[in-house]
Amino acid sequence: MMGKNKAIKTRIDIAEELSNLDIMLEGNASKPNEVDDTKKVSCWRPLSDGEYCPAHATIASVPSGLYEPVYNRDVNQVILKRLPFKTDELYELPSAEIQEILSDINRFWESKELYSNYKFVHKRGILLYGEPGCGKSGIIQLCVKQIIQLGGLVINIKDEDSVDYFIDFMPLFRSIEPTRPIVVILEDLEAIAGEGKYATSQLLNILDGVKQIENVVYIATTNYPEKLEERISNRPSRFDRRYQVDMPNSEIREAYLRAKLGKKIEDIDVVRWIKRTEDMSLSHLKELVISVFLLDKTFDEAIALLEGMKVKPKIKKPNEKTIGFSSKD
Predict the structure, then answer these.
(1) Nearest residue to 155 (alpha-carbon basis) of 278, 70, 47, 98
(2) Each residue of 185-208: pLDDT tens digit?
(3) The pTM is what?
(4) How would you class 93 by CB atoms within 10 Å of its CB: exposed for 0-12, middle for 13-18, buried for 19 or more?
(5) What is the pLDDT of residue 217?
(6) CATH number of 101's domain
(7) Which domain holds residue 217?
(8) Domain check: are 193 and 118 in the same one?
(9) Other CB atoms closer than 10 Å to residue 156's CB: what's the count?
(10) Do residues 124 and 105 touch, judged by C-beta distance below 8 A?
(11) What is the Cα Rg of the chain in Å?
(12) Cα–Cα distance between 205 and 199 in angstroms, integer?
């Protein structure tokens, strides 16, 4: 009798192992991210083109880098897809906003135990706003570089579908990597979760609702803060800090030119370039460098074109119809 019971148990064990193996190899279920036993999903399975799927075995952690959540039909679930990101051309400009933001994020990562002691969810929300081309994307890139160097992960949310994918995917991600530092990027937030958009409620669940996760910094940008609902932009615990990123001053413009031109800076009249680019954005300066050094235009030709293109969109002043942004936060 003992031998018979042992044989039955062995057959059952083998059947369970084969069932688990089938799940691992197929990597899918009847619905996206539906797995028979999520507690067993503790690893990642590399797919093609830098894609990573939750699995029962293979690698313990996703390589540090920039990713976006996408739906993969082959495995019938949301996965992480790696995006190209170059760090060798990034540099810090002498901007108070940049230094303060990077310091804020560094302090946040070092404060996990304090958050726990006070029973706060270990998360941070930062909103950057200002005129187009003033350097918000550059700040984002520096933050991405910083977290990658720390061994963390950056997840880009680009549209309303990405919000849904993120919500579906992150509980599974945290079951695999519960303490991995994550930065979530939401550029042009008004396009993702503007007034009347379905994704607004979903985003609220991510920021401070039932879908919150630990060890995460959310960094959002907008050119049009007045288009955001107050419940998104004007409430701490969703976006805890807001930074107005102004047009670059003369010191920042000169630092940008020196970083871009290197030794070729000796070929230009720096004082003249700085004076003529007053009130211009970093995007304008980039086009100026391209026009003169790559497209063989004279400085006067290039600057004339840029001056003709200059548009100065104004951010609304605080009133009863806006979200209460001041000129300086």
Answers:
(1) 70
(2) 999 988 887 666 777 888 887 887
(3) 0.76
(4) buried
(5) 93
(6) 3.40.50.300
(7) 96-244
(8) yes
(9) 20
(10) yes
(11) 24
(12) 10
